[in-house]
Task: inverse folding
């Protein structure tokens, strides 16, 4: 059962703002036939039947009440590259897919967030433009060690570093020394470090080998970034985390071998967690060959055996969070006949998560609670937002979405709320429909449409104890 607050003295029942009735409420420990009572943006009652007076009711009969998804990994690219996505489009697409909170990466916004001033600039923009709550990553690059304390004080949710070329000149990859020193500093500051774990030297070698063969198709590109590239980087990063005591989050782990390395490191008491992304759980290498540009990302999508093994790891609790790594680009950057030249990044913030729910539609009783953990509770916990976010329980922010399971329907470009209508999921059938999304008790997405008068997003910083 969702936890209940003890009431020591009887109080006059307050008039609630909203009661969500009739839904099946999903928490990591199960699915519960309970009602939620909301007041001033929070859940204040969880009970089988709420009799308090209320200003309004929301009928969730026949639907799941799922915790608002906390997506710790998006690239909305504003300021500087708003034409690639932007905070307004990105957050709306997130909300249309059941998300209530995003953590924006320090790139590909321009300038990237490498100091407190950069973070404040992006924060001010997001406070005007985002329709969901948000947190902001700072960057860890060679030469910005003395900016990390400022980033922490400005409220960065963590630091992101690239161990291979990011493709963005203003966001250079970290060399081993900068990563080590950065993690040492981050540990002192109480900041988590997230890494894009691909070994640059190995990626360069494998890429050169493919180019020498004059192969430029999707298959050649996949071969240019084999699992070994990821494993070498994970080994180094976890070793550094062990030595420095830094909290480490390996983003977009694409292979079960990568998960195994993280599991081993955890057994050695390294403070490391694993994120995978919806596309690694939904697509395989054959899909990449078929779909082309919309399915290009790094590390690349792996074979079917590995995709299925990632689901096993997820169910075994060895993958802690699932993010979208939503990283769109304009159509002209996604059209080269040479797969190596196509800008990488998958636009999955709107449909990736609901397709995970769809993949579990027939095993909802067992798997929806698991998804509530990896899409919301675990994320909030890892990033120290769990006093407010990630769980449908009394005292928490009223962030939730309503999920309907109906007849399968194909996803079309018209469904997309992203700036560019590019997605690897177009044409894919889904039984899941996100009908409503509420952020702090107010609708952002209602009855399958953008809600009018939606509130603006609030900036979130990790809670320090
Ligand atoms: Zn990313």
Result:
């Amino acid at each position: 059962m969702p936890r209940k607050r003890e009431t020591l003295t009887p109080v006059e029942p307050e008039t609630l703002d909203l009661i969500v009735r009739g839904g099946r409420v999903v928490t990591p420990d199960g699915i519960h036939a309970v009602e939620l009572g909301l007041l001033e943006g929070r859940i204040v009652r969880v009970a089988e039947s709420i009799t308090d007076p209320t200003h309004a009711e929301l009928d969730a009969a026949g639907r799941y009440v799922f915790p608002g998804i906390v997506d710790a990994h998006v690239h909305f690219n504003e300021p500087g590259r708003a034409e690639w996505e932007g905070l307004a489009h990105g957050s709306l697409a997130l909300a249309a897919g059941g998300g209530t909170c995003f953590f924006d990466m320090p790139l590909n916004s321009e300038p990237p967030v490498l100091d407190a001033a950069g973070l404040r600039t992006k924060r001010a923009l997001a406070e005007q433009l985002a329709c969901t709550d948000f947190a902001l990553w700072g960057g860890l690059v060679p030469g910005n060690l003395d900016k990390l304390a400022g980033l922490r004080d400005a409220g960065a949710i963590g630091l992101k570093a690239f161990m291979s070329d990011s493709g963005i000149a203003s966001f250079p990859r970290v060399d081993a020394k900068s990563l080590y020193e950065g993690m040492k500093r981050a540990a002192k500051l109480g900041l988590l470090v997230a890494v894009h774990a691909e070994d640059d030297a190995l990626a360069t070698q494998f890429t050169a080998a493919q180019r020498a063969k004059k192969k430029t198709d999707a298959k050649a590109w996949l071969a240019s970034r084999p699992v070994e590239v990821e494993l070498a980087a994970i080994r180094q990063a976890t070793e550094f985390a062990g030595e420095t005591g830094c909290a480490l989050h390996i983003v977009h782990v694409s292979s079960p071998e990568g998960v195994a390395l993280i599991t081993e490191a955890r057994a050695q008491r390294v403070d490391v967690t694993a994120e995978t992304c919806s596309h690694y759980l939904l697509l395989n290498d054959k899909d990449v060959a078929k779909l082309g540009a919309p399915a290009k990302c790094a590390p690349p999508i792996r074979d079917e055996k590995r995709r299925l093994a990632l689901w096993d790891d997820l169910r075994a609790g060895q993958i802690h969070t699932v993010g979208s790594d939503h990283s769109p680009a304009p159509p002209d950057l996604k059209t080269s006949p040479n797969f190596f030249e196509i800008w990488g990044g998958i636009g999955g913030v709107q449909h990736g998560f609901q397709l995970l729910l769809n993949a579990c539609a027939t095993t909802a009783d067992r798997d929806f609670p698991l998804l509530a953990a990896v899409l919301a509770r675990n994320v909030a916990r890892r990033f120290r937002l769990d006093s407010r976010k990630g769980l449908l329980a009394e005292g928490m922010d009223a962030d939730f979405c309503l999920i309907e399971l109906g007849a399968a329907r194909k996803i079309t470009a018209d469904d997309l709320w992203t700036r560019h209508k590019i997605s690897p999921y177009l044409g894919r059938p889904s039984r899941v429909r996100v009908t409503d999304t509420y952020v702090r008790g107010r609708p952002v997405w209602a009855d399958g449409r953008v809600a009018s008068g939606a509130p603006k997003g609030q900036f979130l910083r990790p809670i320090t104890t």
About this structure: The longest strand covers residues 400-410. The pocket of zinc ion is lined by residues 73, 75, 105, 325, 327 (CB under 6 Å). Residues 310 and 316 are 10 Å apart (CA to CA). The radius of gyration is 21 Å.
